[in-house]
Amino acid sequence: MKNSMNIFELFGIKVKVHITFILLPLLIGLGVFFTEGPSNALRAIVFVFFIFTCVTFHEFSHSLVAQHYKIKVKSIILLPIGGVATMEKMPEKPKEEFLMAIAGPMFNIVLAIILFYPIYILFDRNLAQMSPANSSFYTWKATILYMYWVNPILAVFNMLPAFPMDGGRALRAFLASRIGTARATRIAVSIGHGFAILFGLYGLMRGWIMLILIAFFIYVAASQEEKMVNLKVALGHYTAKDILSKEHFTVSPDASIAKVLELSLKTSQQDFPVVASNKVVGILTRQNLISAIHQHSKEKTVKEVMSHKFISVKINEHLTTLYSKMAANNLKTALVFYHNELKGVISLEDIARVYNLEVNA
Ligand SMILES: [Zn+2]
Fold first, then answer.
1. Which of 160, 200, 251, 270 is the most buried (most CB within 10 A)?
2. What spacing in Å lies between the alpha carbon of 167 and ligand 1's midpoint?
3. Whole-model pTM?
4. Which ranges in the chain belong to alpha helices (H)?
């Protein structure tokens, strides 16, 4: 995600904060500063950081289960509305998705149980005093009570069956093992949309901007997920081999852009692998070509304008995996190999063509 910066790395997962995240402690701190004074503002800011520490560990719990199932987790990004773990793909098996979904809320529940006794002692073994209604920023003790309630609330909120929140994912996984992923997703998405509308209306009535944002996020994310599942169903029967064209062209790093332009006009190939002494050293995409022409640099060589980042896949890779890799790396082309030998190029458009054929068939 753009506009986010690394803060630390653990278990090979980068934890980043989005630039808008900085606004949250700042706004809350300032709000409390002007209404309740500086020491309350300090406690409020500590409280906000505590919430995000809990959210980070919640995301780590999802991520560690994902890693257990051999799913690469790239990063955890903290946004003002919560944390997001960016994964290369989602688990295929319902059981794996179920366990991954509940891992986050389980962390919050376990932490709430562990913290219960010390807090119980702190509040003189009096349950009534531990009510969230007694929390405030006026003393550290009252602030600690606020902190105590963070974990039960995170657990309950995330376990609401509002797909694609954790509870919704667990529900989808549960249904998928009985009625299949496509139908399970349709049901979970409808429930997710229902919750999003309820959250949105409630947020509007109460003037809670955060809840309105979360509602919007849930609505959009649920729809995206549904599209993704339809895509998977449509692409499910194909591998890279099935859609690879019979021939492909490669270019040398020292070839001129003018030469590649000539080649691209003669073929339907969009992107050209750049090969030097039988090794792929980069890729010259249609986009590289267009921007080189725009900058009047036709006399430049391929190696000056090519991209160094590319996706390589095996010839028997499923198109769904290929598509997820493209989406995760924000790249539109993949190079297909068979035993280290380049067999061709597949672009996002090629995949879109298969999808349109399948959907309209
Ligand atoms: Zn979660």
1. 251
2. 8
3. 0.69
4. 23-36, 38-68, 94-122, 140-159, 166-179, 181-206, 209-235, 240-243, 257-266, 286-294, 302-305, 319-329, 348-360
